[in-house]
TrEMBL record:
One of its GO terms (biological process) is protein histidyl modification to diphthamide. It catalyses: 2-[(3S)-amino-3-carboxypropyl]-L-histidyl-[translation elongation factor 2] + 3 S-adenosyl-L-methionine = diphthine-[translation elongation factor 2] + 3 S-adenosyl-L-homocysteine + 3 H(+). Keywords: Methyltransferase, S-adenosyl-L-methionine, Transferase. Belongs to the diphthine synthase family. GO terms for molecular function: diphthine synthase activity. The keyword Oxidoreductase does not apply. Pathway: Protein modification; peptidyl-diphthamide biosynthesis. Homodimer. S-adenosyl-L-methionine-dependent methyltransferase that catalyzes the trimethylation of the amino group of the modified target histidine residue in translation elongation factor 2 (EF-2), to form an intermediate called diphthine. The three successive methylation reactions represent the second step of diphthamide biosynthesis. This is Diphthine synthase. It comes from the Archaea.
Length: 267
């Protein structure tokens, strides 16, 4: 049996009760933190809290050489864990399909995701979000500008009156401009992302969501050019670019995120 478990957004307590029980009952547990991380907990914290041994997998272990996980799941109960909801990343769907092809039973235990947290914290209605996009570090796409795919997604969503969730890149490597680097992991900051997007849309309003799921989440809305000048503290950060706002959504952004109401598109 291979059980995919979402750990939630922040620390060792963010997991659901069902996920906690499944993790503690597993014969073997793996976790990957290359798609996202729990900034409020280390692997040691997870192991102590749940009384399990957890092996950390690198990207290649999951995407190119998953035999270790699959072989174990043929004879044991195996937990495969990630931050957020474990099936949001397509690589994990691939792992599930590989397991199914080998006759291994699979199960998914969902966790809280950044998508739902962004809607909850900003007050924007979840069903009014369009396609999401990810802003990569400059070096990650061989160019200093914002990829056309990111700009096209924002424009297409706004043309339809929809909000855009912009994930900010996470990489393992050397210090990078615009990154918050911790233990070799780089987290793009919201101010750096805003400065890059402001080169194309300086007066467009966006919303910063920082540390969703933590005891001190931050939500702040302003024009991209103004957001580029601010420090939003510890990661993880993401951006939301609102489309057309219902009156209640505009009220929420103004009250909860200090949004400049006169710059919102209110319908």
């Amino acid at each position: 049996m291979l059980t995919f478990i979402g750990l939630g957004l922040y620390d060792e307590r963010s997991i659901t009760v069902e996920g906690r029980d499944s993790l503690r009952d597993a014969d073997r547990a793996y976790v990957e933190f290359y798609t996202s991380k729990l900034l409020g907990a280390t692997v040691d914290d997870l192991e102590r809290h749940h009384d399990v041994d957890i092996e950390v997998l690198e990207r290649a272990d999951v995407e190119q050489h998953p035999e270790r996980v699959l072989d174990a799941a043929e004879t044991e109960s195996v937990a495969f864990c990630t931050a957020g909801d474990t099936m949001i990343a397509t690589t994990h769907t691939d792992l599930r399909l590989r397991a199914t092809e080998r006759g291994i039973d699979t199960r998914v235990v969902h966790g809280v995701t950044a998508e739902t947290a962004a809607a909850s914290l900003t007050g924007l209605q979840n069903y009014r979000f369009g396609k999401a996009t990810t802003l990569p570090f400059e070096y990650a796409h061989a160019g200093s500008d914002v990829p056309d795919s990111v700009l096209d997604t924002i424009t297409a969503n706004r043309d339809r009156g929809l909000h855009t969730l912009v994930f900010l890149d996470i990489k393992v490597g050397d210090d990078t401009a615009g990154a918050d680097v911790r233990d070799g992991d780089e987290y793009m900051t919201a101010s750096h992302a805003a400065s890059r997007l402001a080169a194309h849309h300086p007066d467009l309003v966006a919303v910063v969501v920082a540390r969703a799921g933590s005891p001190d989440p931050l939500v702040h809305a302003d024009t991209l050019s103004n957001l580029a000048e601010r420090d939003f503290g510890d990661p993880l950060h993401l951006l939301v670019v609102p489309g057309d706002c219902h009156l209640l959504e505009a009220d929420a952004l103004e009250i909860l995120a200090d949004a400049p109401r006169d710059k919102l598109d209110v319908v």
